[in-house]
């Protein structure tokens, strides 16, 4: 009996994280070979060399090159390429230290063998990686790959001097995540039309270059059809709200298409008097369905109107107030992530903040709202013991008004 190929595909989907079983299946039957090989090589992870060896070549790189050399068709199955711990340092025989990838000649050769990469994840681990630490030939090979690959997803973490021109060179690019990335703008003759991004995530961007980065995405990339925007600078220092002002430039370009908005700004050092000008504006968000906001409540009292707390709490209150005034509002879910910077958050619990939030979330303009999730995190270890008490206090304040509007409330304590 011949098993339909569709059924084989469905069965093998359960082995996506079991390469040993996929490898065994590839030689168990000719009928399984093609499917198991496609699943086995769909996502490959390149790891650094072992620290206890003098060989600076990644064992996974070496094995992949050999496999693709012997069976070239396998390289066409690779759709996701993950680079792990690229920032790991190795020491040459001469005593000079380098990032291991800068010494591995197999990497640029491997890139030339891969024609169908759609997702690239570049994770530099605990050590920052400097783009210019790579040999010129390797940098050229990467930039050429960006032009030739049908790349749709790019994630880069912990890199110095990343060339933004590489992003513009990939016309198929739709999803970008830059986490702790410092960049340079280099003129490039590669690529043509600006990619139409669908999702953009900027986490811990370089403070000094953030306005320039926002300008580049607005002017050199196409964010007019952006559906998801994630912007997180929490823990940074922007006394004049420069981070939010940069984010708003991108949001204003994409307000009509945005569906998911996730913002955690660094307002801890910002003057509370400028908060109203930094709040999310009352634009038309006809497609916005999910909103996530991160903020902080501190022992330091700052009073503005009916709410008290730190500037970031004021920002959330004012942002929800503005959204409740926005026309064509179709928001369905709100998530609030609150860091409690208090020695005893139960004793200093401020009902004013949470009553204001509940009031704005119960606005008739937010009639489609059905889910509210509140995540609370105790920054000080001694405060963790009273977090269940804080959760109950939140329910006492918010459960009734939200419940009367048919909104489901969920409160979660994050360790």
Number of strands: 17
Overall shape: it is: globular
Largest sheet: 13 strands, parallel
* Uncertain residue segments: 302-309
Query: Structural class of the secondary structure composition?
Result: alpha/beta
Strand content: 15-25%
The radius of gyration is: 25 Å
Q: Determine the fraction of residues in helical runs and give it as a percent range.
A: 25-40%
Count of DSSP-assigned helices: 14
Give a written overview of the molecule.
About 2% of the residues have low confidence. The longest helix has 18 residues. It is globular, with a radius of gyration of 25 Å. The chain is 35% helix and 23% strand. With 415 residues, it is α/β, with parallel strands linked by helices. The strands form 3 sheets. Strands 1, 2, 5, 6, 7, 8, 9, 10, 11, 12, 15, 16 and 17 form a 13-stranded parallel beta sheet that branches. The protein has a two-stranded antiparallel sheet with strand order 3-4. It has a two-stranded antiparallel ribbon with strand order 13-14.
What keyword list fits this structure?
415 residues; single chain; 14 helices; alpha/beta; two-stranded antiparallel ribbon; 13-stranded parallel beta sheet; 23% strand
Report a brief summary of the structure.
The protein is of the alpha/beta class. Helix content is 35%, strand content 23%.
């Amino acid at each position: 009996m011949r098993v339909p190929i569709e059924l084989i595909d469905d069965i093998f989907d359960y082995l996506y994280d079991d390469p040993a079983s996929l490898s065994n299946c590839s030689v168990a039957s000719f009928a399984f070979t093609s499917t198991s090989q496609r699943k086995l090589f769909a996502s490959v992870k390149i790891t650094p060399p072992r620290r206890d060896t003098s060989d600076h070549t990644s064992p996974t790189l070496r094995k992949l090159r050999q496999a693709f050399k012997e069976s070239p068709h396998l390289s066409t199955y690779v759709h996701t390429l993950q680079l792990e711990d690229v920032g790991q340092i190795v020491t040459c025989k001469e005593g000079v230290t380098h990032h291991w990838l800068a010494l591995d000649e197999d990497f640029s050769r491997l890139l030339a063998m891969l024609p169908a990469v759609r997702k690239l994840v570049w994770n530099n681990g605990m050590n920052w990686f400097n783009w210019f630490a790579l040999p010129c030939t390797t940098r050229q090979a990467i930039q050429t790959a960006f032009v030739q690959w049908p790349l749709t997803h790019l994630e880069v973490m912990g890199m110095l001097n990343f060339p933004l021109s590489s992003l513009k060179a990939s016309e198929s690019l739709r999803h970008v995540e830059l986490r702790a990335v410092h960049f340079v703008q280099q003129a490039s003759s590669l690529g043509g039309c600006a990619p139409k991004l669908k999702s953009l995530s900027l986490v811990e961007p370089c403070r000094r270059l953030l306005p320039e980065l926002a300008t580049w995405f607005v002017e050199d990339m196409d964010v007019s059809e952006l559906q998801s925007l994630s912007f997180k600078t929490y823990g940074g220092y922007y006394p004049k709200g420069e981070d939010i002002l940069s984010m708003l430039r991108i949001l204003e370009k994409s307000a009509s298409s945005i569906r998911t908005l996730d913002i955690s700004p660094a307002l801890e050092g910002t003057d509370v008097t400028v908060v109203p000008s930094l709040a999310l504006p009352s634009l038309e968000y006809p497609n916005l369905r999910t909103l996530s906001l991160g903020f902080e409540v501190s022992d330091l009292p700052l009073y503005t109107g009916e709410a008290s707390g730190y500037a970031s709490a004021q920002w959330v209150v004012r942002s929800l107030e503005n959204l409740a005034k926005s026309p064509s509002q179709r928001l369905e879910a709100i998530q609030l992530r609150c860091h409690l910077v208090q020695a005893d958050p139960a004793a200093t619990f401020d009902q004013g903040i949470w009553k204001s939030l509940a009031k704005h979330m119960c606005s008739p303009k937010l009639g489609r709202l059905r889910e509210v999730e509140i995540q609370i995190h105790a920054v000080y270890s001694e405060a963790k013991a009273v977090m269940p008490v804080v959760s109950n206090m939140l329910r006492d304040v918010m459960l009734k008004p939200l419940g009367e509007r048919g909104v489901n409330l969920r409160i979660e304590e994050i360790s």
